[in-house]
Design goal:
Layout: H1 2-15, E1 42-45, E2 48-50, E3 53-56, E4 60-66, E5 69-72, E6 76-79, E7 85-86, E8 99-104, E9 108-114, E10 118-127
Parallel strand pairs: 1-4, 3-10
Antiparallel strand pairs: 1-2, 4-8, 5-6, 7-9, 9-10
Length: 128
């Protein structure tokens, strides 16, 4: 009878992943540092704003979300810092994660670029 209990205990251990090469990785990997852009928002990726141009109505708030991290969240990632710097002087922090919002209360074209990458990484908002 004692042998039956031992056999059941060993079988239970293997069935629950306690042996036999079961995975120890969690089911849900940790966040990778990227922030999905909100609906109608702009993604700040490595060396690009997507979309690069956008037309909005007066009074609209536009959101930029940083999506610059690459690599494995378990073994190390690289996140690249960028900014949203407008020609009129309004700027986001230089950051590698997070979001930035700006409300546009007057009509016109608002050009912006990344302070790190200059005109190689630029965009514009047209407000009508």
């Amino acid at each position: 009878m004692k042998g039956v209990f031992v056999a059941l205990a060993v079988a239970s251990l293997y069935a629950c992943g306690g042996g036999g090469g079961g995975s120890t990785a969690p089911n849900n990997p940790p966040p990778n540092g990227n922030t999905p852009p909100p609906s109608g928002g702009i993604s700040v990726s490595n060396n690009t704003f997507s979309p690069g141009t956008k037309t909005v109505a007066v009074g609209t708030t536009v959101s930029w979300s940083w999506n610059t991290c690459s690599g494995d969240p378990y073994y190390g990632q690289t996140c690249v810092a960028h900014s949203v710097t407008f020609d009129d002087g309004i700027t986001s922090p230089t950051q590698d994660q997070g979001t930035f919002n700006r409300q546009f209360n007057t009509a016109g074209t608002f050009n912006y670029h990344c302070s790190v990458h200059g005109s190689a990484m630029a965009g514009s908002i047209t407000v009508q």
